[in-house]
Amino acid sequence: MTTHEDRTVYDCIILGTSPVCMMEAHYQCRMGQRVLMIDSAKEAGGAWRDVELFGFEEVEIGAHIMRHWRKGYRYIENVLGIPMTRMQPEPFWILPKYGPMPTRTPCAHVWNLVLFPALGRFFSRAGLQEVLRNPKQTVFVPLVISLMWFWRFVKVGAPRARYPMGGAPRFIRRLRALLNHDSVRILTETTALEICVQESAKLVHVRTDRATLQARRLCITSQSRLNHIRGESGVLNLTPISADTKHLHMLVEDKAERLFAFARFHQDEIFNMISDISDYATHFRREKPTCKLIAAWCSSEFQDSESHVMRAFIHAKANNLIGPEARLLDYKVSVYRSTELQEQDRIAIKRQFGEFVEILETENLTENIAHYFDRWTQAN
Questions:
Q1: Are residues 222 and 114 in the same domain?
Q2: What's the rounded Cα separation, in Å, for the pair 6 and 8?
């Protein structure tokens, strides 16, 4: 494919169209900046985009939850105009030794997953040696995390998880509407091939498979796939960690009432997270009143085979996520390549190109949304 040079100089180019990228674009536009977004996917939304599946539109691509963060919830309600509704039933953890545990008991699961294993290291020789080698990460950090959760529980009470009414499709649709209002240009199905920072001219050149673009600043996410950034003083090589993320969608005939909204598994051989997304797909409840749509993020060992899918279906039954009489009607396994910038790469980017390249953190979405609520408040 031939490329051409776009002579427009943007104030900011954002690689990616995840919710955090969209909120950053909205904020930059509110500050009077000219913004361009680039994504290699067909549709905008990143890991929160929707797909067409089993004959239904706006099916959530995976299992999602928005952790309790009041400012994040307020941004969605006040800025995006989407009501946040309580997740019913309450989300819960599924622990190997303890079974289901509501996420509203943060002290309990933080202690079980963080503090108790840290303290248990003192009672084994190998664990004690690990503590002596790295006391900060093995003892101090777990202790601080546990105390912070305990103080938060005492101060504000047990948090209740909420989710945008209409789910991820409405959430992304509303963000897209904001960007359209702000006249943000979005290029989908466009892959960034090379980044060149021209420090003397204070410009960043982004070469894609369609055009060469230029801006005064570039925003990338912590999940960036870039393997190098070229500058006038040399090339900064990056080594992002790649992994395949496997998602399973199941169309299930189940006349039982809704048994769960979201569950997170700990050290499970099949599931990482799983959610009932029946309420969000267009017309699904009306056309399939006796069916459920289940989305799961599966472990790395999970395979796209009928035997693995049946094991997952039986596993969901065994954990009371679907009724005992449920039948599997159809399924779809999707594999997505995810990446993560290593810490040394982030430090190197900030040190060498910090004036021109900004890294957007996307790990905790609700915490990131809270950050933009503060920015939105200041801008108004």
A1: no
A2: 6
Beta bridge partners of 328: 252
- Could you please report the per-residue DSSP string of 122-155? GGSHHHHHHHHH-HIIIIIHHHHHHHHHHHHHHH
CB atoms within 10 A of CB 3: 13
* Angle at CA of residue 261, ends 260 and 264, nearest 5°: 90
Q: Which range of residues forms the domain containing residue 324?
A: 243-338
Same domain, 234 and 344: yes
- Please tell me whether the overall predicted TM-score, pTM, comes out greater than 0.90 for this model: no
Whole-number Cα distances in Å, 2 to 15, 210, 303: 21, 7, 38
Residues 220 and 232 in one domain: yes
Q: How many domains does the chain have?
A: 3
DSSP string of 80-96, one letter each residue: S---EEE-SSPPEEEET
Say which residue the tokens 């004959």 belong to: 55
List, for residues 55-108, the tens digit of each pLDDT value.
999 999 888 888 777 788 888 998 899 999 988 888 887 877 666 766 654 445
Question: Which contiguous run of DSSP H or E holds residue 256?
Answer: none
Per-residue DSSP letter, 41: S
User: Using CB atoms within 10 A of its CB, is residue 1 exposed (0-12), middle (13-18) or buried (19+)?
Assistant: exposed
73 in Cβ contact with 65 (< 8 Å):
no
* Contact of 193 with 207, CB cutoff 8 Å: yes
CA dihedral 43, 46, 48, 52 (to 10 degrees): 30
Task: Please list the helix, strand and coil fractions of the chain in percent, rounded to the nearest 5, in that order.
Answer: 35, 30, 35
